[in-house]
Amino acid sequence: METFTFNTVELILLSAAGILFIIQLIYYFGLYNRIHAHNKAVRKEEVHFSRELPPLSVILCARNEAENLRKILPAILEQDYPQFEVIVINDASTDETEDILGMMEEKYPHLYHSFTPESARYISHKKLALTLGIKASKHDWLVFTETNCMPASNQWLKLMARNFTPQTQIVLGYSGYDRTKGWLHKRTAFDTLFQSLRYLGFALAGKPYMGIGRNLAYRKELFFQQKGFSKYLNLQRGEDDLFINQLATPSNTRVETDINATTRINPVYRYKEWKEEKISYMATARYYQGIQRYLLGFETFSRLLFYVSCIAGIASGVLNSHWLVAGIALLICASVSAGMICSTVPSFKPEILFLITAIRPSPTYTVAEFQDLPILSRKRRFHEKMNSWNQPLHINSIRTIMIIAWLYSCRNKAIFHI
């Protein structure tokens, strides 16, 4: 019976871990599971879509993006959509961007391009470029992406446009990094995934608070009602997340999560570039309206406390040779590490593929979905790891290591692809 006797410290640590475990599950199943629930409703035809395909304008800003334009522009220009235009604003490029745009305009009559004046004194040239593109557009619906983002299919515009109902003014889409080798890629890919699970989850819950310009659509009238980006011209960023934060409501915002409506971001090979982008978004986050960022901050804080209590419980059990305490703490910790994965499916299958980056599954699969998968070798299972979200690195490293360890411990039962 001494095995089941706990001292005061052990009771406090296990109780804290249990309470924080419940909090984490609430976030996983109440927020991060929203994308799966939405796709399930779409498959059951419980979500209403518009059958009309209104004309739209796709707007991009390019600065020394000649190589990306060669690869990505044809995929955008050859979308299976009845009427659309593509507007590219050349933001003072010094490479072959202007020549490439000129050649492509001869082949694609619905491609147009302009440029930002070299004398422009805007703090953010991107805001100026987007403003020029919006003013030059002919159509009411505007779709935004970036020159390093490849549409997942030629149905991208159609799937975004099916959300253009009379009440809708904003449509949010998912974008994720394309797959490549290296720990930096794993880190940035999981960071983007986790951020998307958060802002898309809140939008699906009726509490939209931001959007990302890599896959975004809204009505032109919103831009002029807001007087463009005039409220935050003093900021380097904010043309997407702050703009949507100020205008999005539960009734005017929809989310498109079909696999073929995603955009694939070119991998990042330099940590400095990714870090600069993260810092710029963090600089605008403090201007967000609403309680969402506080709720997410609480989730981060509770997660840190959870791991601390679990590690302390394991250490206490090992030092006191009380293996039951160590086992309970380890079990709870591993359960939360697997919680985000399990929260995306209605049932847990023994052999699974967790398609975080949404590459080449069937069109009915969600951005984060499971499917049966034949057993693979240990070497191929373990080469795919996870990354972290935009929070202090030591917290996310713990989460990453725990999920990798849990997946590897499943031996031939699971594989994680990112």
The secondary structure category is: alpha/beta
Cα radius of gyration in angstroms? 23 Å
Percent of residues in helices comes to: 40-55%
Report the end-to-end length measured between terminal Cα atoms. Answer: 46 Å
Q: What share of the residues does DSSP label as strand, in percent?
A: 5-15%
Flag low-confidence runs. 342-418
Key phrases:
three-stranded mixed sheet, 14 helices, single chain, 418 residues, alpha/beta, disordered C terminus, seven-stranded mixed sheet
Layout: helices, strands, pairs:
Elements lengths: L7 H25 L1 H10 L12 E7 L3 H12 L6 E7 L6 H11 L3 E5 L9 H12 L4 E4 L4 E3 L4 H6 L8 E4 L1 E3 L5 H22 L11 E4 H6 L15 H7 L5 E4 L6 E3 L5 H15 L6 H28 L3 H20 L9 E4 L22 H5 L10 H17 L4 E4 L1
Parallel strand pairs: 1-2, 1-4, 2-3, 6-9, 7-10, 11-12
Antiparallel strand pairs: 4-8, 5-10, 6-8
Question: In words, what does this structure look like?
Answer:
The chain is α/β, with parallel strands linked by helices and 418 residues long. Helices cover 47% and strands 12% of the residues. The protein has 14 helices and twelve strands. The strands form three sheets. It has a seven-stranded mixed sheet, with helices on both faces. A three-stranded mixed sheet has the order 5-10-7. Helix 1 packs antiparallel against helix 11 and helix 1 runs parallel beside helix 12. The two termini are 46 Å apart. The C terminus is likely disordered.
Summarize the model shown.
The chain is 47% helix and 12% strand. It has 418 residues and is α/β, with parallel strands linked by helices.
